[in-house]
Amino acid sequence: MDLQIAQAPEQLTALAAMAWTWALTFVPRVGAAALILLAGLFLAGWAASLVRRIAGRTTQIDATIQPILGAVVRYAVLILFLIAALGQLGVQTASLLAVLGAAGLAIGLALQGTLQNIAAGIMLIYLRPFRVGDYIETAAVAGTVGEIGLFVTHLETAEGLFYFVPNSSLWNTPLKNYSRNPRRLMTILIGIGYGADPAEARRVLLLMAKDEARILPEPPPQVSVEKYADNAITIAFRAWAPNSVFLDVQREMTEEAKRRLEAAGVEIPFPQRILHVVSEPDERGRNRPATGPAGGPPLPGTG
Predict the structure, then answer these.
(1) Rounded to two decimals, what is the model's pTM?
(2) CB–CB of 172/91 below 8 Å?
């Protein structure tokens, strides 16, 4: 027992020497690895920003691809510096790559939905069904595209709302792009009275289209009778306009059509009912007032 107590200071001294040796060897490596990671974080952000600026100055790279390029560069720089930091700690990079491969497979199986979003984002970038600035609509969401990322797409609605939409939701559903084509067809339905002349209404509306410089002359505007409704004859005014001014022209033409038709004497009716009352003869052959519903009193103005 006395011998063990006597040897204790020597053992503590040996342990302290080992700890000091380990600290002198390993702590600088930890510090170097930390500095490498910090430098990697800084350089990754700087490189991503640089790529975006360079891509924004050239017309050869579409604005839709610029955020993707920045993200790819950032993650690539981070991975390189992470491997360098682990190598500074003594981790064998060859073994590290094998571990990363196995970990990547496991993470891929666990994050199938996320990988679907990445794959959908790549396909959206490649096929380009829409670009930044386009107004798109699906069954679930509609808005102007602000950014297409690796995982999600940013949309802003006409009411100023922000939508954070996974890429797979846009890739796996039918989608309307209101900004893709340079022109659009407007269709304005107008009801005119049965006493009005459809030919006169057609003349007035075609003249209205001719006077509007923003309506395209080709294909020419058309006015046709669509159906005979209960209270009016429904006619359709169809004309093409540039996509950039389509909504403004459609709103103005809807208002202008009413003004011009009324000025030309073409009636635009409102819903109404005309009631015809027929007197019924009694047993002596004399007419008797018609009764109201369910045998009630006679209707006003009958008898």
Answers:
(1) 0.58
(2) no
Residue 2 lies in a domain: no
Other residues' Cβ atoms within 10 Å of the Cβ of residue 215: 19
Instruction: Check whether residue 165 and residue 194 sit in a common domain.
Output: no
Q: Which stretches of the chain are DSSP H helices?
A: 2-57, 66-88, 93-110, 112-127, 167-171, 198-211, 246-263
My answer on whether 231 and 257 are in the same domain is yes
Last residue of a domain, one of 162, 177, 192: 177
134 and 214 assigned to the same domain? no
Q: Which helix (H) or strand (E) holds 234?
A: strand 233-242
Average confidence (pLDDT) over 164-173 = 89
Run of H or E residues at 188: strand 183-192
| Structure confidence by residue, pLDDT tens digits, 238-285 | 999 999 999 999 999 999 999 999 999 888 887 766 677 776 666 665
H/E run at residue 225: strand 222-228
Residue 84 domain boundaries: 20-110
Q: Give me the mean pLDDT over the 76-100 stretch.
A: 72
